[in-house]
Design a protein that fits this description.
The chain is of the alpha/beta class. It has 21 helices and 20 strands. It folds into three domains: about 170 residues, Rossmann fold; about 160 residues, Rossmann fold (3-Layer(aba) Sandwich); about 190 residues, Rossmann fold. Strands 3-2-4-5-7-6 form a six-stranded parallel β-sheet, with helices on both faces. Strands 11-10-9-12-13-14 form a six-stranded parallel β-sheet, with helices on both faces. The longest helix has 16 residues.
């Protein structure tokens, strides 16, 4: 079977079960595009490499399999690095293929030449260049294994154009059977023994490898042991938020009572989460040098256990595998009152606190939470608008939240396009700020071309809200570099063949959303937000006054 490198590549991807790739075409990987032509693999052609890599990352989140992205050399790769960073911090399996210069011209600063090992060295789990056509199956197979192993993450393979166009006679590598890492003997029993010594235990769940069974096991474990469960940053769909043992999520705008509960807990059972700076409010809720509590840490990657917090017990295994055992264990203590108090704190926190203006974000989010189908997928990027979503939206099912723990702006819309393509039968809603949306709104044409129908709710306050918030705290009244001049977002949707409507009052939102759904196309609902609505708990004037006082 003599094939050119692009055909060898596509055949190996098909053998690995790849159904869809995301790309922005480039002359550096024409042979790969030719290989994809009759491969049966869908090629979602995007408008900018950052959007393509974020769509691939979202695919990895949804499926648990590596999202695949193709971009060209130089500017294409640098643009795509945004999605690679998301995949790294979010522990998402992903493989980025980068077209590369002719490898016979290396080190001459050839047109668009970049050393990808140096460029992606701190962002990816593994970076390599395939210089020999006959070794393509070897490199691709290894890339997928590395992306999925331990703590999942992104892998980057550079593909010199002369290597891709050259021919070779080489067989495809077979797909190896995956051996599930066994849970260490007696791990669950030892965890339960430690739990039994605690007076105020708290479970914190997050990280990769989750699925519907893990969610069910987490809930069963919490019920059987009468334990409160907090979820990691932007992992709110790992447990039914209606569940009586759900205590809230550890996000940027954390419930102060939940923050106090993390401080007061005498035992933390960390399941899959890295328990990083967001969950700990910059490592202030738990001091890495002196935690003053028992820490039990379950993670699939041994390098993550003890990276920041030295645990009293570390278990190298996936959180779902350990939860399969924990869900069957006999009760180890009585924490019903502690758990009920945690639940009461959460319920008080999600009671809407009125914000200024005719359109109230808390009411819009509550309406969406109450009226969207339970399996609706909600996506977002970064910005103060997201605080209303995280605080007031109640997630009911696993696989309904796509959001970057890396804090990347612009993520929500590409993620919603990827989600709509993957799940055309489900409602997909992207919540975005005006600044966040404009970072990737060029992917509206990608949505149109590939039949994606997300509904985008743009919270328009005419500024970069998060930066303005910090600006008012540190330099009150001195507005610099945070104001935005925005387009007519509803008209923008219509320009791309979609539905667009502008809403200025809360009462008008439900009808506008119904019209957007009925349109059956991509849609944008632009919500005009009052400038005073700065955070879920404070107005702009109040923040400024506090800083000046």
């Amino acid at each position: 079977m003599v094939r050119h490198g692009g055909k060898i590549l596509s055949d190996q991807l098909a053998k690995l079960g790849v159904r869809r790739v995301f790309s922005v075409p480039g002359e550096s990987f024409l042979a790969a595009l030719d290989g994809l032509y009759d491969s049966g693999i869908q090629n979602v052609v995007c408008r900018q490499e950052g959007g393509a890599s974020m769509m691939a990352e979202a695919y990895g989140k949804m499926t648990g399999q590596p999202g695949v992205c193709f971009v060209t050399r130089g500017p294409g790769a640098t643009n795509a690095s945004a999605g690679v960073h998301v995949a790294r911090q979010d522990s998402t399996p992903m493989v980025l293929f980068v077209g590369q210069i002719d490898n016979r011209q290396t080190d001459r600063e050839t047109f668009q030449e970049v050393d990808y090992r140096a460029m992606f060295g701190g962002l990816a789990k593994w970076v390599a260049q395939v210089d020999h056509t006959e070794r393509l199956p070897e490199y691709i197979s290894r890339a997928f294994r590395v992306a999925m192993s331990g703590r999942p993450g992104p892998v980057v393979l550079a593909l010199p154009e002369n290597m891709l166009s050259a021919q070779a006679d080489v067989p495809d590598l077979r797909v190896p059977e995956q051996v599930v890492q066994p849970v260490p003997v007696d791990a669950a029993r030892m965890i339960m023994h430690a739990l039994g010594q605690a007076q105020r235990p708290l479970v914190v769940a997050g990280g990769p490898h989750w699925n519907r069974q893990a969610r069910a096991d987490l809930q069963a474990f919490a019920e059987r042991q009468e334990l409160p469960v907090a979820l990691g940053f932007r992992r709110q769909d790992y447990m039914d938020n209606h569940h009586a043992h759900y205590a809230g999520d550890l996000n940027v705008g954390i419930n102060p009572r939940l923050a106090a509960r993390v401080r007061d807990a005498d035992l933390l059972l960390l399941l899959g989460t890295r328990f990083g700076d967001i969950e700990t409010q910059g490592y202030t809720l738990v001091d890495p040098a002196d935690p003053q509590k028992t820490i039990l840490h379950v993670h699939a990657d041994a390098d993550e256990i003890g990276r920041v917090y030295t645990p009293d017990m570390g278990v190298v295994a996936t959180a779902p595998a350990v939860l399969r055992q924990l869900a069957q264990m006999e009760p180890a203590g009585n924490w019903a009152d502690w758990t009920a108090a945690a639940r009461a704190d959460y319920q008080a926190w999600i009671t809407p606190q009125e914000s200024p203006g005719d359109l109230k974000q808390e009411q819009v989010i509550k309406w969406l939470s109450d009226n969207l189908p339970d399996d609706a997928i909600v996506t977002n990027g970064a910005g103060n608008y997201a605080a209303w979503l995280h605080r007031y939206f109640v997630y009911k099912q696993y696989g309904t939240q796509l959001a970057p723990t890396s804090g990347s702006m612009g993520y929500g819309f590409p993620a919603s396009v990827s989600a709509s393509i993957e799940h055309p039968e489900r409602t997909v809603v992207c919540l975005a700020g005006d600044g966040c949306f404009q970072m990737t709104c060029n992917e509206l044409s990608t949505a149109t071309q590939h039949g994606a129908t997300p509904i985008v709710v743009v919270m328009n306050n005419g500024r970069y809200g998060t930066i303005r918030m910090h600006q008012e705290k540190h330099y009150p009244g001195r507005v610099s570099g945070t104001a935005l001049a925005n387009p007519d977002f509803a008209a923008l949707a219509r320009a791309y063949g979609g539905f667009g409507e502008r809403v200025t009052k809360t009462a008008d939102f439900p009808a506008a959303f119904a019209r957007a759904q009925a349109a059956g196309t991509l849609a944008i609902i632009e919500c005009q937000v009052d400038e005073e609505a700065l955070t879920t708990g404070a107005t702009l004037s109040a923040v400024r006054a506090a800083a000046q006082g």
